[in-house]
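Q: Second attempt. The first request was missing the SMILES, so the protein and 2-OXO-4-methylpentanoic acid are both included now.
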Amino acid sequence: MATHKLLLLPGDGIGSEVMAEVKKVIGWLDAQGLASFAIEEDLVGGAAYDSCGQPISEEAMAKAFAADAILLGAVGGPKWANVHYEARPEAGLLRLRKDLQLFANLRPAMCYPALADASSLKRDLVEGLDVLIVRELTGGVYFGEPKTITDLSDGQKRAVDTQVYESYEIERIARVAFELARTRKNRVVSTEKHNVMKTGVLWKQVVSEVHGSDYNDVTLEHQLADSCGMQLVRAPKQFDVIVTDNLFGDILSDVAAMLTGSLGMLPSASLGAVEEISGKRRALYEPVHGAAPDIAGKGVANPIAMIGSLAMALRYSFGLIEAADRVEAAIAGVLADGYRTGDIWSEGMTRVGTAGMGDAVIAELAKAA
Ligand SMILES: NC(=O)C1=CN([C@@H]2O[C@H](COP(=O)(O)OP(=O)(O)OC[C@H]3O[C@@H](n4cnc5c(N)ncnc54)[C@H](O)[C@@H]3O)[C@@H](O)[C@H]2O)C=CC1
Ligand SMILES: CC(C)CC(=O)C(=O)O
Ligand SMILES: [Mg+2]
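A: Got both inputs this time. The predicted holo structure:
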């Protein structure tokens, strides 16, 4: 069996807590002979800043380039609120995304049957929900220049962020969305704000052209991003694949998370292009949530988003479909058995902490083995 080079970057806050549970799952898969990993680990975010004054070191970046896939916990927290902007924890994650050219961020939001009552929406609105948000991840306003705060002569300040998209960036993310839609319900909603933004005008035009030339078999609808947010909480099951830019994708995926019960449920995959010679693609897998400073250190964080991110790595980077299916089935199994961390707990359910949920997943995997 091939050995896969996996880099673990736990990061800050609950990042290291949820990563500890993924390590148990990795160990179990290895012990069962279902997968073979060569593991490296390094610092990112505030943890890296504390160690070397940068949110990611050059050594860690070299490991990231050498890895077959990266698993990242989360970065950030109030401890680093006064660190200068370029060295803030989030800059480490943004550098990984940009330098590795991980332009396609897949954020699936599925409502497990056992959790339909944990959603902030009524059961019938979310039961069976299966939406895939395809977020552009290396362009847009998170990276556009200029990005400045300047002092004005009258004592005021002016802040500028710049939203930039070139047509090739829109075309390649649109292709990812259409290809994935073909493996699902064959429907894509493209969302932007062409009514107020030039990038929205170009986005809509390029997505329409890609659709017209190569994906006429896929149903395409355009929605303005504000309206799309409204539709996500009005009737979320109308969606199959949503393709959108970096900022709107960030916001809409947090909204979608709550439809499933908790931000602690949503995994994600950030993928680069398939390289022509090797056939490989760079990839980083991380939960959609952040470092959650309000619960960090308490052992209560939900590790399912992180464990689900490992399942995505098994599927998309290593082609270990059976192992991925088993991990996803184990997640569904523990939820069906009533195990709940605090964020998804309700009366009558078995309340567990982060480690308890990780142990329950291992027990479920072992039961099915
Ligand atoms: N990918 C990343 O590393 C991300 C980092 N961040 C950073 O994280 C820090 C905190 O940001 P917030 O706005 O508070 O967002 P957050 O996602 O960390 O937390 C939002 C809320 O969701 C809860 N939550 C999140 N994950 C959970 C889990 N696994 N189990 C149970 N509850 C969970 C938190 O307790 C909190 O109440 C900031 O520094 C932010 O920049 C935010 C989002 C993504
Ligand atoms: C750089 C991250 C903190 C942005 C974010 O919230 C996300 O990617 O979900
Ligand atoms: Mg976010």
